[in-house]
Amino acid sequence: MPITVTCGSCGSMLRAPDTAAGRKVKCSKCGDAIAVPAGDELQEMAPAPVRARPPMPARGQAPTRVGGSAGDESFTFDGGAADFLGTGILAYLLTAFTLGIGFPWAICLIQRWQKYHTMIGDRRLKFVGTGGELFGKWIIWALLTVVTFGIYSLWVTPALQRWMTEKTEFDNG
Q1: 136: helix, strand or coil
Q2: If DSSP states are collapsed to H, E and C, what string results for 91-142?
Q3: What percent of the chain lies above the pLDDT cut of 90?
Q4: String of DSSP letters for 27-87
Q5: Residue 159 — pLDDT band, cuts 50, 70, 90?
Q6: In Å, how far from its chain's centre is CA 68?
Q7: Residue 66 burial (C-beta neighbours within 10 Å; 0-12, 13-18, 19+)
Q8: What is the C-alpha separation between 94 and 102, in angstroms, rounded?
Q9: What is the pLDDT of residue 45?
Q10: Are 152 and 138 in contact (CB under 8 A)?
Q11: Distance between the two ends of the chain, CA-based, in angstroms?
C-alpha cells in the first residue's frame, strides 16, 4: 500500500511505494528530499480527519464540487514581473491622468490580471467586475469616509475585498 508523504518545502503530497519506507524520495514538484516514514513512525502518522471546504459556487449557480480530493484544489499563480509591467503602468497612468477618478478602473485592471494568472486545481479564475460598478461604490465610500472624519475607512477595505471576491468566478472558456 503506498505511503502518502507531504513535501516540507512546497507542500505537495506524494504517494511513495512501500519499498521506500525508511528512505528518502525526491519531490516530483520541487526536487527536495522527503523522508518516508517506516514502522512505528507510520502508526504515529494516523491521518487527521479532513474537513471538506464548502464548495465555491459560481455566481448565480448552486454549489458544486471543484475537485475530487484536496490535492486537486491546490492554488497556483503563474504571473510574473514581465506580465505585470504593462498592466501596472496602465493602471498607474489611468489613475494619474484622471486625478484619481480612474482608480476604480485601475483596481479592476489589476484584479483582472491577478485572477487570470490564478488557478485552483486545473481551473483558471476570471474577474468580471467593471470600473463603472466599482465607481458608484467608491463615491459612496469616499463620502461616508469624509462625513465620518475617516472612521468609515475601516469598513472600506473589507467592503472592497468582498466586492472583488464576489466578482471572481471560474473561467469556463
Answers
A1: helix
A2: HHHHHHHCCCCCHHHHHHHHHHHHHHCEEECCEEEEECCCHHHHHHHHHHHH
A3: 54
A4: -TTT--EEEPP-THHHHHTPPPPPPPPPP-PPTTS------SSGGGG-EEE---HHHHHHH
A5: very high
A6: 19
A7: middle
A8: 6
A9: 55
A10: no
A11: 39
Residue with cell 525508511: 22
- Look-up: residue for cell 486625478? 99
Separation CA 139–CA 79 (nearest Å):
31
For 51-74, the pLDDT digits (tens) are: 555 565 555 555 454 444 545 678
How many residues are there in the chain? 173
> Is the CB of residue 134 less than 8 Å from the CB of residue 108?
yes
**How many Å apart are CA 130 and CA 117, to the nearest integer?**
18
Q: What residues contact residue 53 under an 8 Å CB cut-off, 6+ apart?
A: 73
